[in-house]
Amino acid sequence: MKRVICVGAHPLDADLMGGPLLMKYAAKGAHCTMMHLVKGRLEGDVDSETQHAYQENLKKEMIQAAQTIGCDCNMLEYTTAELPSVDVFANTLVEYFEKEGVELVITHWRGTMHARHYYAYETVTKAIKILRKRGKNIKLLYGENCEDLISFIPQANYHMSKEEFDQWFKALNCYTIFSGNVNEVPYNSYYRTTGVIRGIENGDYEYYKSYMYPCLIETI
């Protein structure tokens, strides 16, 4: 693969799902991109100045994390209210994927607790369907995400060396939210533990990252 994109709903999502695989492809010379659909925001009663400062810092974190993995990032910065309809955005993705010559896309699995995660699943999957009907040999994977685990069945397990695992976590730690200082989601402990568990499932004690194939749109 020479052109790979991971589409995440919120900042950090793409890095969590696609980081290990994009890192591997980038190391082999591929052009890899983290795409972030919605700009992050602090929840609760937060004044506009604090919110703006958080979002500006988040942009820097996204760029730094992507560079650490060896790729670039595409920050669309939609708010939830601004997201286009599924059909409109799916067609936007079709044009973007065609223009970029994308060969592999990674995004959210459908079994999620977040409406924006499902939006990413639905729009990306629809775009891939359209491209495949046009004869494009474009691949799709759904990345493991701790908030998208309903019916998620690991099917493709990619090995990470200790050095690759550390590089991935160095990228993830670029995000303030990953450290647990923004919300209570245990990102660090979940992905560190899951990496080991997937290794045990594969018969060793190394680190692995899991993905699902798009079985609902594969042709026989």
Mean pLDDT: 93
When the domains are counted, the total is: 1
What is the C-level CATH assignment? Alpha Beta
Amount of helix: 40-55%
Question: Can you tell me the overall shape?
Answer: globular
Which sequence of strands runs across the widest sheet?
3-2-1-4-5-7-6
Would you identify the regions where 5 or more consecutive residues have pLDDT less than 50? Answer: none
Q: If classified by CATH, what would the architecture be? A: 3-Layer(aba) Sandwich
- SSE arrangement, N to C: EHEHEHEHEEHHE
Layout of helices and strands:
Elements: E1 3-8, H1 13-27, E2 31-38, H2 48-69, E3 72-78, H3 86-100, E4 104-107, H4 115-133, E5 139-143, E6 156-160, H5 162-172, H6 187-201, E7 207-212
Helix pairs in contact: 1-5, 2-5, 3-4
Detailed description of the structure:
With 220 residues, this protein is an alpha/beta fold. It has a seven-stranded mixed sheet, with helices on both faces. It has helices at 13-27, 48-69, 86-100, 115-133, 162-172, 187-201; strands at residues 3-8, 31-38, 72-78, 104-107, 139-143, 156-160, 207-212. Helix 3 packs across helix 4. The chain is globular and about 50 Å long. The chain has one domain (3-212): Rossmann fold (3-Layer(aba) Sandwich), CATH 3.40.50. It starts with a strand and ends in an 8-residue tail after the last strand. Strand 2 (31-38), helix 2 and strand 3 form a beta-alpha-beta unit. The longest helix is centred in the first third of the chain and has 22 residues, at 48-69.
